[in-house]
């Protein structure tokens, strides 16, 4: 697999694109987020790790306004989006793409029409220009020539790659990836990791990747954030994570299970 150069080299001098402060989110009586705070530089790749149910995907849904936090703020390029309504969010979402865990392709549309959909909805391009864009984006995910196929004709990995092409259609500044390698074999997962890395390197796209896949995280992360009990227990580079001495984080990165009692004792 081709890995982007210097994955631990965080663009510290780059201006901040995303500023998240003190996010809280509950569902009924269940508190999921208990004060998530971080900044994201332009061009940076942040991977959010954590156990199932820890709040990784919930965090992601706050970042483009799919859900609103009960407390806290999300500022994207100077715009406070955490209190925007759907009308106000529309122009912002042209700049923030999301790759859903399932890919979320329209089963009744061809590959071409799936990738063309955001261009038809949010641009004034001609059909000829749209066709050129679709071809370019499919080429970037190494799927040239499949425009006429239906989603049912595709493997799981191909569906994810078509979904990535659709995410790139409007040339977003930020892409949010929700478990992009779930259900894929190791070889296909490596291809997805390579495409995520190349997208950042070649297009300058900022990335937030939610995953439990440590191989993917090591391939694409410049920084990692570890969610534990609704907060970021750690955020920093891999080297900083491995030198932190935090037992819970260390056990997670080593793939070791930790019983709840042991975790509480270590905290």
Helices and strands, with pairings:
Elements lengths: L15 E12 L2 E12 L3 E5 L6 H7 L8 E6 L2 E2 L5 H8 L2 E4 L11 H12 L4 H14 L15 H13 L5 E5 L7 H18 L2 E5 L3 H7 L2 E6 L2 E6 L1 H5 L4 H7 L6 H7 L1
Parallel strand pairs: 3-8, 3-9, 6-7, 7-8
Antiparallel strand pairs: 1-2, 1-4, 4-5, 9-10
Helix pairs in contact: 3-4, 3-5, 4-5, 6-7
Q: What spatial order of strands do you see in the largest sheet? A: 6-7-8-3-9-10
- Overall body shape: globular
Helical residue percent?
25-40%
Task: Report the C-alpha radius of gyration, rounded.
Answer: 19 Å
The total strand number stands at 10
Report the order of strands and helices.
EEEHEEHEHHHEHEHEEHHH
Outline the biggest β-sheet.
Answer: 6 strands, mixed
**Helix/strand/pairing class, anyone?**
alpha/beta
Please state roughly what percent of the residues sit in beta strands, choosing from under 5%, 5-15%, 15-25%, 25-35%, 35-45% or over 45%: 15-25%
Mean pLDDT: 87
**How many DSSP helices?**
10
Oligomer: single chain
Could you name the ranges where pLDDT drops below 50 across 5 or more consecutive residues?
Answer: 1-12, 258-267
First and last CA, distance: 36 Å
